[in-house]
Amino acid sequence: MSFLKQLLTPFVEFEDKEKNEPAKQNKPVTTPATAPKKPLTTSAPTITPTAPPTNENVQHPLITGNGTGNSSPVVNLNATQIPTYSAGGTIAGPLPEHEQYFEKLIDEANAKNPLFQGTDYKEFVDSKVDIDDIQDEAIKYRTAYNVLKSTGLTKEKLLSTGQEYLNIIGRDLNAFQSAHSQQYQKEVRQKELLIQKKAEELQTLTQRLNALKAEINQITQDINLTKDKLNTTKNSFLLAGENKQKEIQTELQKIAQYF
């Protein structure tokens, strides 16, 4: 049950849709003294992942199987899932596993990070689901906010925690791109160098011409399969992260507009 529904239960009777779901432990409302203050902002910049240094050993749970920190969730990947593509050949939407990854990333940060103790951006967004029957969006936002104010939620905390969720996604996207680049160099570049070596042997060992050509063709096929797999994973993951960022940015813009 969300914070909003808990607060409204004494006055409004809700259908118990969550009785079969595991109970979520309420977080304490108090904010720790060590939690840094976030500046009040009205818009959230997009976090653009950057390419890693070639000598940097970066890990990401979806590539190396090891987390980059306590906030990295583990997602069981389903290899049978196939992405959809647009007519132009670009990926049309992220794989469900990658969307789930970012949902779990936010959920885990919300549950474990001291910055998100008490009611914050996530509880606010989740609580709006309980008042979906309100058609006017501005009224819906103000209603959810006014009810949650009694739990200690402020506009400043709403915006600052939303910005911090954006930062968490941005840092994870950076780590993913770095680890992906390293994996690409390790699994693809080495095979490309192997092709070059075999091509040089082909020029001097004419008696092995047919055998070397067959070997090169097989390695080329392996490279194409590996490239397709890596690029599909990368494009899907980045798109899932960007979609989640846009979702949070839209919410923050509406919060800034309506309050």
Structural features, described:
The structure is a single chain. This protein is an all-alpha fold and 259 residues long. The protein has a domain at 1-7 and 86-259. The protein is 55% helix and 0% strand. The chain has 6 helices and no strands. It has helices at residues 3-8, 96-112, 121-127, 137-148, 155-204, 209-258. Helix 5 packs antiparallel against helix 6. The longest helix has 50 residues, at 155-204.
In short:
The chain is mostly helical. The protein has 6 helices and no strands.
Layout of helices and strands, plus pairs?
Blueprint: H1 3-8, H2 96-112, H3 121-127, H4 137-148, H5 155-204, H6 209-258
Helix pairs in contact: 5-6
Give keywords:
259 residues; mainly alpha; 6 helices; 55% helix
- Sketch the major β-sheet: none
How many strand segments?
0
Query: How large a portion of the residues is in β-strands, by DSSP E?
Result: under 5%
Oligomer: single chain
Shape: elongated
> Roughly what percent helix?
40-55%
Distance between the termini: 25 Å
Reading the helices and strands in chain order gives HHHHHH
Give the low-confidence spans: 10-55
Note the total helix count: 6
Average pLDDT metric = 78
Question: Which structural class should the secondary elements be placed in?
Answer: mainly alpha
Rg result? 24 Å
